[in-house]
Please model this.
Amino acid sequence: MTLTLTPNIDAPDDLYADLLAAHEGLTDDQSAALNARLILILANHIGDRTTFREALKAAAPKP
Model:
């Protein structure tokens, strides 16, 4: 599986609003835990470690 980095989301602003809403009212620790669970759920959906590593590399801060 190849990682898709080009825009591929219908209504990206709505998706972002959903993400923000999921964090509403959470503490920083709860928010971090939600992000971690979400990442693991999506990684499981991808199901391919090579693709996941590509995503990690793409998301990493650039020097």
Observations:
- Residues 28-46 form the longest helix (19 residues).
- The mean pLDDT is 96.
- The chain is about 65% helix and 0% strand.
